[in-house]
Amino acid sequence: MSIFVDIEKNLGSFHLKVKFESGNNTLALLGASGCGKSMTLKCIAGIERPDRGRIVVDGITLFDSENHINLTPQERRVGLMFQNYALFPNMTVLQNIRTGAKREKDKARREEMVAQVMESFGLAPLAGRYPHQLSGGQQQRVALARILVSDPHILLLDEPFSALDSHLRFKLEQEVRSVIRSFGKSVLLVSHDRDEVFRMADRIAVMENGRIDAIGTKKEVFDDPKTRTGAILTGCKNISAAKLRGDGRIDATDWGMELTLGRNQAVNAISTEETVTRQAASIQYVGVRMHDIQLLETENAGATGASDKAGKSAEVKTGTVGEEVLVCPKNTFHCQVVEEIENPFSMTILLRPVESSHAMPIGLETNKETWKLHRGEIVAIHIPAESILLLEERET
Amino acid sequence: MDWFPLINSLRIAGISTVIIFFVGIFAAYYISKAPRMVKGVLDVVLTMPLVLPPTVVGYLLLRVLGPKRIIGAWFLEHFDLKLTMTWWSAIFATVVVIFPLMYRTARGAFESFDQTLAYSGQTLGLSNTYIFWRIRMPCCRQGILAGTVLAFARALGEYGATSMIAGYTPGRTATISTTVYQLWRTNDDALAFKWVMVNMAISFVVLLAVNMLEKRNTSSAKKGGL
User: Fold this and answer.
1) φ and ψ at residue A53, rounded to 5 degrees
2) Which residue of A has its CA nearest to B119?
3) Domain count, chain B
4) Which of A50, B23, B44, B54 is disulfide-compatible with A7, CB 3.0–4.6 A?
5) B129 shares contact with chain A (CB less than 8 Å)
6) Check: complex ipTM more than 0.95
């Protein structure tokens, strides 16, 4: 119940080079389209041949370039669900599912397996229908049933919900989650949707240009996506170019802000286990999630609300922060409201520090009630040190 | 009226179509998977008979199958078999002429086939033979059927290469098209007209069949298929 992958493949526009391992759980490959995640699945399934490397599932070597092992897709027992489900259009639901059971030679046993899976997926009433007569959700169910009846050792899902209307997704996610649970073996999920990935997977690997940028539990990856792409893929919308300074501070140059890092981050960024990959010099960006930015009490902001006082109070603030940097990082800024954007259930506020009028605005997300309380031309915000993401730009 | 030319035409066209159905499909299948360079060259070579005058095809065939030429002489020596001037000699001519029609329509159909269907079949453990005959072919049946009927129709109408390689011997190698020419040449206008009518009737039926097949295909596509 495990998978080990270490492969390389030249794809012309970029070089696919991935290495990962996964146990008896769900690993999601999160990446933008064309980053090589679907290609990775195809290599595991045996549809594409890597240039070199090794693929092992449950102790069985599926591919090993050094020992010239390359099992056919038929021999691999890898269940791959395609984005478009790939149901055979010339066959009914029942016939489609029968094709999945073809490996079983005993005919009676085969029919039994088919009947059982039809039953457990609630497909019996649709047995005689053709794929194009089914809804997207039903098609997905048939595709899953057809794969599971073939008794695969591992399940690969390629963008399982991208072909569905958004209102269907939530319900089908639940269905797929329960299928995964009862499957009980390794599952690889490919997606570009961070919410979907967070809900479906135990672990996440962020992919970019054929490489895995970060891999870990979903909490680890969302807390420290490590690269700019990782931050974007995990939904961080505020990203600024940055210069890390020796004194535990970082200049977010796009925002015109000087941020004080938490003690752990400052240390982490310069030394420890990841010294090689995460040297201070490689930190080129800083990210802050919109909902991590806090609005401060209105009395401060209200007092400095008048625009003529704004510049002064900003100076004062920098001074006070400067004195107690390492003791108590403040990261408090007075900002001008550039734009208020209303979302269905929240507000997004674009802000710019009052002292840097040409800076790129930074976004803050808050609920509508809170915004009503703090609303003004100038507001005070706090960026908690632990919410600051230090990011690299990985060379391609 | 002697119906021999009709029977001869039908059997030549029928046999040629059966041969070309398999040859054309397999050529199309393998060439659609070939590397681009190979594909480009083979495509040109295999499409040539479509644009060459039938007399050029006939000439080239005689160059290899004639009793004094490489293949023709070999068969004559070893099997005492003359490859030209028999009724089935015309099959060589029609096969070459109709091959591009079958090959090109089948290749078009294969190239528009959704490859993920074949891939998912492989991962489910289905053999490549099963995938070819039970998934790829049914999904491409419209294009393949159209190619087959077109090839048959063209085979029935083949004249140039046929007359060169099989000649015109009444009751032995005469086909409808060669008969019409002979009758017109010998001023037998009435009989020529009869054969013309026969030919037109057959073409009408064939084209009607194509139309009906297409209709059935599109309606079955709505109900159950492509």
Assistant:
1) 130, -160
2) A47
3) 1
4) A50
5) no
6) no
Token pair belonging to B10: 């039908």
User: CA-nearest residue of chain A to B139?
Assistant: A90
Q: Answer yes or no: is pLDDT of A270 > 50.
A: no
Q: Are A287 and A391 in contact (CB under 8 A)?
A: yes
Q: Which residue among B122, B139, B226 sits closest to A73, beta carbon to beta carbon?
A: B122
B61: domain CATH number is 1.10.3720.10
Q: Give the residue from chain A lying closest to B224, CA to CA.
A: A130
CA–CA separation, A244 vs B4, rounded Å?
A: 95
Tokens representing residue A216 in the block: 């870990």
What tens digit of pLDDT does each residue of A43-86 get?
999 999 999 999 999 999 999 999 999 999 999 999 999 999 99
Q: Beta A249-252 vs A238-244: how paired, if at all? A: antiparallel
CB contact under 8 A, B126 and A82: no
pTM here? Answer: 0.80
**A102 and B122 in contact by Cβ < 8 A?**
no
Encode B84-100: b = buried (16+ Cβ within 10 Å), e = exposed: bbbbebbbbbbbbbbbb
- Is B139 within 8 Å of A89 when comparing Cβ atoms? yes
Residues 6+ apart with CB under 8 A from B49: B57, B96, B97, B99, B100
Predicted confidence (pLDDT) per residue in A273-313, tens digit: 343 345 566 888 999 999 999 988 755 444 443 433 333 33
Give CA–CA dist B148/B109, Å, rounded.
Answer: 12
Q: How far is B74 from chain A (nearest CA, A)?
A: 44
B51 is in which domain, residue-wise?
A: 4-225
Mutant choice from B33, B114, B120, B122 vs A, greatest count of A C-beta within 10 A: B120
Contact state of A130 with B126 under an 8 Å Cβ cutoff? no
pLDDT digits (tens, 9 = 90+) for B184-199: 999 999 999 999 999 9
- The owner of tokens 């967070």 is A198
Q: What per-residue string of b and e applies to A337-358 under the rule 16 or more CB within 10 Å gives b?
A: beeeeeeeeebbbbbbbbbbee
Angle at which helix B4-33 crosses helix B176-185, to 10 degrees, equals: 130
B82, two tokens: 């003359």
Encoded tokens for B24: 């054309």
Nearest to B124 among A46, A90, A150 (CB): A150
d(CA A38, CA A55) in angstroms, rounded, equals 16
pLDDT at B18 over 90: yes
Given this model, what pLDDT does residue B220 score? Answer: 53
- Number of CB atoms found within 10 A of residue A396's CB: 9
Per-residue tokens: B167: 């000649």
